[in-house]
Amino acid sequence: MSEQQLPHPGRFRAGLLALAAVPAIQALWMLLAPRGFYDDFPGLGRSWLPPVGVYDEHLARDVGAAQLGMAVVLIGAAILLERRIVQLALLAFLAASLPHFAYHLTTTGSYATVDNVLSLGGFLAQVALAAWLLSQTRTTRSVPWPASSPSPPPHAARSRG
């Protein structure tokens, strides 16, 4: 496996697209119908936003735009499947998701048990998938340098003057 390739590209592509689906759907909903998103998210007769704050169209559109950006990064990583881009996309996803998840841990008193299970369970599933995919991007060398070769690794050779 070269420095840039990922093992099991289909697995990475599917995982990245699965992670991109939620922010993509939320982004479209927030940007096209921000009040509807506030009133009806997550759908199916449930409404998770009114119990924790007042409606703010500007905030809804800003978060929708950020979610759209996250979806684009994840979809781009799924298309390109270059190891460092995938790593960056997954780190960005985790950087956005973990504080959001931490906030939701503070609002459990606002919801029924089933809503907490659905909300927090969804976050945990996404974070676990992103962390697992990130862990799979590490490259390993079959024999570490310098044990098998007097030559330095390629990046060390380039840094010599």
Outline the structure in words:
The protein is mostly helical and 161 residues long. 66% of the residues lie in helices and 2% in strands. The radius of gyration is 20 Å and the shape is elongated. It has one domain (9-139). It has helices at 9-32, 34-40, 57-80, 83-105, 113-135, 154-159; strands at residues 42-43, 46-47. Strands 1-2 form a two-stranded antiparallel sheet.
Secondary-structure content class: mainly alpha
Secondary-structure element pattern, one letter each: HHEEHHHH
Q: What is the β-strand count?
A: 2
Output mean pLDDT: 88
How is this structure best summarized?
The chain has 161 residues and is mainly alpha-helical. It is 66% helix and 2% strand.
List keywords for this structure.
two-stranded antiparallel sheet, 2 strands, 161 residues, 6 helices, 66% helix, mainly alpha
What secondary-structure arrangement, pairings included, does this model have?
Layout: H1 9-32, H2 34-40, E1 42-43, E2 46-47, H3 57-80, H4 83-105, H5 113-135, H6 154-159
Antiparallel strand pairs: 1-2
